[in-house]
Amino acid sequence: MLRDLVYLFFPKYCAACDSTLYKNERILCTSCRHELPLGNFHNVNAKKIEKVFYGRINIENATSLFMFQKDGLVQNLIHNLKYRGREEIGQELGIWLSKKINQNPDYQIVDAIVPVPLHPKRMRERGYNQVEKFGIEIAKNLNANYVDSVLKKISYNNKQSKRGKLNRWKNTAETFGIQNESLLENKHVLLVDDIITTGATIEACVLVLQSIPGIKISIASMAITE
Q1: pLDDT band at 24 (very low <50, low <70, confident <90, very high)
Q2: Does the pLDDT of residue 220 top 80, yes or no?
Q3: Taking CA atoms, which of 28, 136, 137, 224 is between 20 and 30 Å from 115?
Q4: Does residue 9 carry a pLDDT above 50?
Q5: Cβ atoms of residues 160 and 171 within 8 Å
Q6: Closest C-alpha to 90, from 142, 130, 36
Q7: What's the confidence (pLDDT) of residue 7?
Q8: Are 201 and 161 spatial neighbours (Cβ–Cβ below 8 Å)?
Q9: Closest CA to 209 of 226, 225, 185, 192
Q10: Is 137 in contact with 98 (CB distance < 8 Å)?
């Protein structure tokens, strides 16, 4: 009875469409769970992501949970995660992607999950890294270590959402550094981010990480643009 009253006066809303959730729904309404555009990259579409980075960096495997469409459900979902404090979205997406990949042998040999980091100034502004809980859930389900103490963002960039491809690459290059390299020596790392657009951020991270002896790098994101 008390739970019903709490729900009546403090309803929860779908993270994708903002409609009121029923009591048996969590984070996302049933409709959105069926309508969100899954990428299925870990099975048949992995080459689509690899083409983004072809000739630029070497990666072992690549996957993404959703296809990103402008003004679509995924955009609203990630907007709520990044700018409205709904960190639980990252956790939910981490659980979802984990269920998709934990039976794939390519991801069973991952040793460590590494999040794309935020600059300390951005971290203070937002209060959290939007990919942290996403990465932690994947680490749990793949029985891997979550390692956020090696890859660091060392220069502060303005928001890149409205930048062109070339300007975005220039703005991202040489903005990451590493420390405590021994934690990832001879490890297979899964680098996780929220959205892959031009691939500039992932490329910059990989170029820094690949200086670590014996490292292998795969990629996973919440979404990738079409």
Answers
A1: confident
A2: yes
A3: 28
A4: no
A5: yes
A6: 130
A7: 46
A8: no
A9: 185
A10: yes
Residues 116-150: tens digit of each pLDDT: 999 999 999 999 999 999 999 999 999 999 999 99
Q: Residue 215 and residue 211: Cα distance in Å, rounded? A: 8
Q: What are phi and psi of 110, to 5 degrees?
A: -75, 130
For residue 223, the cross-strand partners are: 66, 195
pLDDT at 181: 96
CA atoms of 188 and 109, how far apart (whole Å)? 7
Cα first-last separation, the chain = 46
**Angle, in degrees to the nearest 10, between helices 132-142 and 88-101:** 30
Q: Which of these, 135, 104, 105, lies nearest to 117 by C-alpha position?
A: 135
Position of tokens 């979902």? 77
Instruction: Read off the pTM.
Output: 0.88
Exposed e or buried b for every residue in 126-138, given b needs 16+ CB within 10 A?
A: eeebbbbbbbbbb
Neighbour count for residue 17 (Cβ, 10 Å): 15
How far is the C-alpha of 65 from the C-alpha of 56, rounded, in Å?
A: 23
Residue identified by tokens 């042998």 is 105
Range with lowest mean pLDDT among 91-95, 138-142, 151-155: 151-155
Cα separation, 2 vs 43, in Å, equals 45
Q: Which of 206, 207, 166 is nearest to 189 (CA)?
A: 206
